[in-house]
Design goal:
Layout lengths: L1 E8 L2 E7 L4 E6 L5 H11 L4 E3 L3 H14 L16 H10 L8 E2 H7 L6 H9 L12 E2 L12 H15 L9
Parallel strand pairs: 1-4, 5-6
Antiparallel strand pairs: 1-2, 2-3
Helix pairs in contact: 4-5
Length: 176
């Protein structure tokens, strides 16, 4: 069973879901894809969804607070990421982008040894159901512009500014 809770953040309310094995959902509550993600998770994990909390969600709430307070740069809560092999590879590679850093979709495709798959990489990024922990917000256009983020570009910019502030690294967001 997937347990669901709401988490208040400086960027608005988020919905988090977890099974006994780990977190499988973290999305902004106003994301248009959220109903589809619920449906997909129920099908892919062959389970139901209901309100409630478990150990992973308690840990996630604590780690999210630490992240937004600038005290956490990596998450340790286990993740459940059902998807195709390619999607899983993309999501795993996203987790290699360091806090406070960005990468272009092209660089992401090259890191996956698939330089011609930029569009497929972008599509897989968009299918990521675990926002922030699988940091698709760190992927930008090859021209440095902020592009495509399910939570909206204002939130993407906020997250990148937040990480820049607490990482000590310079990220050029002047093109936004």
């Amino acid at each position: 069973m997937i347990k669901i809770i709401k988490i208040e953040t400086p960027l608005g309310e988020m919905v988090a879901g977890a099974t006994d094995e780990g977190v499988c959902l973290l999305e902004f509550n106003d994301r248009r894809m959220l109903p589809t993600e619920y449906k997909d998770l129920k099908r892919l994990l062959n389970t139901t969804i209901e309100d409630g909390e478990n150990l992973h969600l308690k840990t996630l709430k604590k780690q999210m607070k630490e992240y937004f307070d600038g005290r956490r740069k990596e998450f340790s809560v286990p993740l459940i990421t059902p998807g195709t092999d390619f999607q899983q590879a993309v999501w795993k590679e996203l987790q290699n982008i360091q806090f406070g850093s960005t990468r272009s979709y092209q660089e992401q495709a090259i890191a996956l040894n698939s330089p011609d798959s930029v569009r497929a990489v972008a599509n897989a990024n968009g299918m990521n159901r675990i926002s922030i922990l699988i940091p698709c917000h760190r992927v930008i256009g090859s021209d440095g512009r902020l592009t495509g983020y399910g939570g909206g570009l204002k939130r993407k910019k906020w997250l990148l500014d937040h990480e820049k502030k607490y990482s000590g690294k310079a990220i050029d967001l002047s093109l936004f």
